[in-house]
Amino acid sequence: DFPIVTRTDFSDTTFLLEILHPAMAKAAKPGQFVIVMVNEHGERIPLTIADFDRQRGTITLVIQAVGKSSREMQAECRVGGTLFGMVGPMGIPSHVSDAKKVICVGGGLGVAPIFPQARAFKENGAYVIGVVGFRSANLIFWEHKFRSVCDEFIICTDDGSAGLKGLVTQGIEGAIAEHGDIDEVVAIGPPIMMRACAEATRPHKIKTMVSLNPIMVDGTGMCGGCRVRVGGRIKFACVDGPDFDGHAVDFDDLMQRLKRYRPQEQQSLEQWDENCRRL
Amino acid sequence: MVRKTIRNIPQERAFMPVQDPEARAANFDEVALGFDEAAALLESERCLMCPEPACIAGCPVSIDIPGFIEKLLKNDYRGAYDRLTDSTLLPAVCGRVCPQEEQCEGVCAVAVSGGLEPVAIGRLERWLGDKAIAEGWHKSRHIEPARFRVGVVGSGPASMACAADLAKAGCEVTVFEALHAPGGVLRYGIPEFRLPNSVVDAEIGQLETLGVEIKCNTLVGRLFTVEQMLSEMGYDAVFIGAGAGTPKFMDIPGENLNGVLSANELLTRCNLMHAGDFPNYDTPLGLGKRIAVIGAGNTAMDAMRVSLRLGAEEVHCVYRRTELECPARAEELHHAQEEGIAFHWLTSPVELLGDAEGNVRALRCQRMELGEPDESGRRRPVPVEGSEFDFEADTVVYAIGTSPNPILGQTSKIRLNKWGYIETDETLATSLAGVYAGGDIVTGAATVILAMGAGRKAAESIRQYLGIRD
Ligand SMILES: Cc1cc2nc3c(=O)[nH]c(=O)nc-3n(C[C@H](O)[C@H](O)[C@H](O)COP(=O)(O)OP(=O)(O)OC[C@H]3O[C@@H](n4cnc5c(N)ncnc54)[C@H](O)[C@@H]3O)c2cc1C
Ligand SMILES: Cc1cc2nc3c(=O)[nH]c(=O)nc-3n(C[C@H](O)[C@H](O)[C@H](O)COP(=O)(O)OP(=O)(O)OC[C@H]3O[C@@H](n4cnc5c(N)ncnc54)[C@H](O)[C@@H]3O)c2cc1C
Ligand code: SF4
Ligand code: SF4
Ligand code: FES
Ligand SMILES: [Mg+2]
After folding, report:
1. Is B269 on the interface with A (CB under 8 A)?
2. Which of A263, B76, B82, B180 is deepest in the core (most CB within 10 A)?
């Protein structure tokens, strides 16, 4: 069992858990993820390691409650409690290149995971431009954390309630226009956002890395459920990724496959709501 | 005592009840129900006690078959079990899943020179293994204080056998398993109706009584490397039994359509994650009504029979060779046929076709014919020109084999062969000093008993490496 030592709620859908796991805190690198099981009946859900603290021996996860499993985590995971299962770090760590100037882009559930990457680039001596997207101002979190590792930090909100009004791609385009010498862009978020980022950088031929989030089961390369299409070839995101060249990724394929279990997910959520109401 | 001859032994095999095909196709209870005591004794009478028993040579771990049968006949069941478990850690497992017809039973004198059905060695083993579980028999631990620490990667049969032998030799053994439950393929692959989880749990319980510690949720390579186990974590030796595990696809158009999955994924969702009990368990499966499974090995049989039990209306097997070349255990193929699975021999898919929503709706197949023999000695299937036809299916399952799991290769300097399997010498030593490997990760997908045999062999090599004497 894996003890939960901190919980912070950023909004009514997004929350942070810090889990005690000294060996994992020691091993974790930016870009890696864990697979968590809330309880014995749970599914195995992948979550990016949003931060790690080697001194305290902890792993930080930032979770968006979207369906049954993540809502159950939101309802049941408290300080003093435990997770039934947590395995990792999984996946090939992000390659922190020696790029001189990078844009690190995070949107939706990708805001937290982009943080360790931005920090790693900073530690590598790069000029880091952070671009993060939120729906509105009240959902913003980790602003000070980002500012401490970014040379420039651009917040975009859908409704314009803070920062730039618009999508992260506008933030990217602005930064590209301002700096003619961006070496690399790293984007993490929903597939539709990552695709838009890749399209924004394609004309400028700027290397763009994305972190893919297909449906996973084991996360060890054993089931093939996480297969994605990159450069016309099949890759298993859990062992060959999760980072890939955004210009080679078939995002339509990814988005199609993410819909695979929609009816079941709906059913599961409805039953969960029903049970919650009865209690 | 009258010397037994082929004429004075029971001519027919003792009766073993099997669940009725129609009933069992709708439940996950065991299909083969096993002998009772009377049947076990009757079947034991059929062994000729050959002076030079071919069966022992046919068994990959050289079980003293006439030896344990002799004790069984004397009603010395505990003695028979001890004799059996001198060579195998998992009699209740192997008795159920060994391809006996190709191993011990395939060379049994009763069949080879007598022309009768061979002695049902596997069923006798299963009976003894089940009896041991029921009676709580176990091998006692060697009490010598632990002088060495050995780390084991993976918890499949190779690792279990290796861990047991080393624990008996007085080593402190820790097994690291990536999944949240131990057992390897025995847990996530082979379904309940062939090998109940209770049997796997009992055999793993045996390991724990020997003092072996099992740590699940531990992905070796990523949480720590094999090298770190030796340098920082203080293990004197390491055994790797990581399995083959990574499913193959064919690289034909349409493979990424929804509804196309590997047998490993289907079986893992069902066996490990209990998707059959969705939504009480959270993992979905979303199986369709008309299932096509590509391949005809044990994995394919299991995927088909699981689909049937989960409510599929039709289950079809598509295989590019013929029934003769079908690599599954004879009993499984037979059971699958009885349960109403349709077999399409000499058929190979060339493309998967989808609907507007991106779900698979059909396979485009090609007929094959057998040509010249290939390297394996089997006649190579060659496509028949212009024989394409479409075959409807809303779920397509790949069971065409596996390749080695890449994680240890990515994270360690251990030498791999050109196919990505771990390279070992004849003692199962790898290119890293103190690191041994065995099972599917060395040989490619094989069998439970071969993996166990490799685990035991590696344990012996590790004892020598550490200088442990009896
Ligand atoms: C490498 C990786 C890293 C991720 N990191 C984070 C993170 O840091 N924070 C976060 O909130 N989310 C993250 N996700 C997504 C997260 O795993 C899903 O949101 C979660 O599994 C949804 O489960 P649910 O039961 O709550 O919702 P459901 O209603 O079951 O699913 C909602 C949607 O999530 C996707 N999904 C469902 N099951 C899985 C699964 N087993 N694996 C992957 N996706 C699935 C599907 O597209 C589905 O339509 C990550 C996914 C991957 C692959
Ligand atoms: C569906 C199916 C049916 C089968 N039916 C039969 C049958 O009837 N009879 C028969 O004899 N054989 C059968 N086989 C084959 C047999 O199961 C295998 O040959 C055997 O299990 C191999 O044993 P192993 O110990 O090498 O590996 P596995 O059983 O594959 O176990 C390997 C274990 O190591 C773990 N692991 C891998 N990498 C790591 C890592 N880096 N860190 C930690 N843990 C790790 C895996 O999660 C897994 O649990 C079947 C196989 C399948 C898939
Ligand atoms: S372990 Fe397998 S091959 Fe050996 S005797 Fe038993 S059933 Fe036969
Ligand atoms: S070969 Fe058959 S008859 Fe002979 S000892 Fe072995 S099991 Fe008995
Ligand atoms: S999640 Fe199973 S292979 Fe990647
Ligand atoms: Mg879910």
Report:
1. yes
2. B180
Residue B288, SS3 per DSSP: coil
How far is residue B48's CA from residue B51's CA, in Å, rounded to a whole number? 9
Q: What's the rounded Cα separation, in Å, for the pair B429 and B456?
A: 13
Q: Note whether ipTM > 0.90 here.
A: yes
The answer to whether A177 and A171 are in contact (CB under 8 A) is: no
The answer to pTM > 0.80 is: yes
Q: What is the count of residue pairs from A and B with beta carbons less than 8 Å apart? A: 129
Which is it for strands B360-373 and B379-383: parallel, antiparallel or unpaired?
antiparallel
Write the residue with the smallest CA distance to atom 4 of ligand 3. B59
The pLDDT of residue B141 is: 59
Residue A159: pLDDT band with limits 50, 70, 90: confident
For residue A223, give the amino acid letter: C
**So what's the pLDDT on residue B143?**
59
B350 CA distance to ligand 4 middle (Å) = 46
Across the interface, do B256 and A234 touch by the CB < 8 Å criterion?
yes
Beta strands in B32-155 (DSSP E): 148-153
CA B416/CA A43 separation, integer angstroms: 33
Q: How far is the C-alpha of B154 from the C-alpha of B216, rounded, in Å? A: 9
| B364-373: Cβ within 8 A, 24+ apart | B364/B388, B364/B389, B364/B390, B364/B391, B365/B318, B365/B389, B365/B390, B365/B391, B368/B320, B368/B321, B370/B321, B370/B322, B370/B346
Residue B67 main-chain phi, psi, to 5 deg: -65, -50
* Res. A235: pLDDT tops 90: yes
Q: Which of B108, B119, B151 is nearest to B10 (CA)?
A: B119
Q: Tens digits of per-residue pLDDT, A183-204?
A: 999 999 999 999 999 999 999 9
Tokens of B344: 């399409």
Contact list, A271 vs chain B (CB under 8 Å): 279
CA–CA separation, A128 and A146 (whole Å): 10
- Predicted confidence at residue B144, as pLDDT, reads 64
Identify the residue whose C-alpha is closest to ligand 5 atom 2.
A223
- Cβ of residue A60 lying under 6 Å from some atom of ligand 1: no
Q: How far apart are CA B215 and CA A66, in angstroms?
A: 31
Task: Report the sign of the C-alpha dihedral through residues B118, B119, B122, B123, in that order.
Answer: positive
B204 CA from centroid of ligand 4 (Å): 30
Is B245 at the interface with chain A, CB within 8 A?
yes
- Token pair for B243: 């399995």
The pLDDT tens digits for B117-149 are 999 999 999 999 999 988 888 766 555 666 899
* H, E, C per residue of chain A: CEEEEEEEECCCCEEEEEEECHHHHHHCCCCCEEEEECCCCCCCEEEECCEEECCCCEEEEEEECCCHHHHHHHHHCCCCCEECEEEEEECCCCCCCCCCEEEEEEEHHHHHHHHHHHHHHHHCCCEEEEEEEECCHHHCCCHHHHHHHCCEEEEEECCCCCCEECCHHHHHHHHHHHCCCCCEEEEECCHHHHHHHHHHHHHHCCEEEEECCCCCCCCCCCCCCCEEEECCEEEEHHHHCCEEECCCECHHHHHHHHCCCHHHHHHHHHHHHHHHHHC
Residue A269 contacts B, CB cutoff 8 Å = no
Q: What is the DSSP letter of B47?
A: -
Contact A164, A157 (CB under 8 A): yes
Tell me: cis bond preceding A242? Omega within 30 of 0 counts: yes
Q: What is the mean pLDDT of residues B248-265?
A: 93
| Cα gap B412→B226, rounded to integer Å | 7
Indicate the SS3 state at residue B373: strand
